[in-house]
Amino acid sequence: RDRKDPLCKFEVVQVVRNENAKLWRVYYSARKQVLEKCEELSDSFERRPVKTGPEEAGAELEEVFGQEKLGLMDDVNECYLFHGTKPSAATNICETNFLTSKAGSAVGTLYGPGLYFAESSSKSDEYAKDDEQGPYQGLYAMLLCRVTLGQCCYTDEVRPKVRKLVEAVESGEFHSVLGDREKARGTYREFISFNADYAYPEYIILYRREEDEEGEE
Q1: pLDDT digits (tens, 9 = 90+) for 5-31
Q2: Which residues pair with 11 in a beta bridge?
Q3: How far apart are the first and last CA of the chain?
Q4: What does pTM read for this prediction?
């Protein structure tokens, strides 16, 4: 899906760090398994720099926390990526993990029934919804997740062959899909994981959308 509605500004209301030891152990174990597989690939393993990495937008994050504390592993293409959702769902995910069975319930599954992540918050906002009632009524949510991409199956097709992509990951040859809509349609890249254990929801970002006022620069 490529966004057609105009972009808006975001006002961040609250950021909460998720410290779930059980989910972290699951993620840590899954990352270790991916590392072993990537080491077997040796020279055929391809690193995929992301725009949230320390060389670009993530530089400030690394400056605050320090590279060692962030502990991102280049050898498994581990990175921070955004995932759009709604506040109540964000809380549930941080407590019990992602559910791949609900993949595509927001706006569809262009690259298959997986978990969709982005290096651009504007892209993840497409998947975000607001709570219609409760304490977070009118607010939207994003998760800033630590994601192990492993070996990425890259595609820049405008209309990707979904079955082929899913089979490539299910065969064990790849761990995730990188859909390059930036190249295909001039929008944003998307990263899709079909295994919930490959992502750890580390931060909840609650925000509201602010439409640009007419004539505002």
Answers
A1: 556 789 999 999 999 999 999 999 999
A2: 208
A3: 28
A4: 0.89
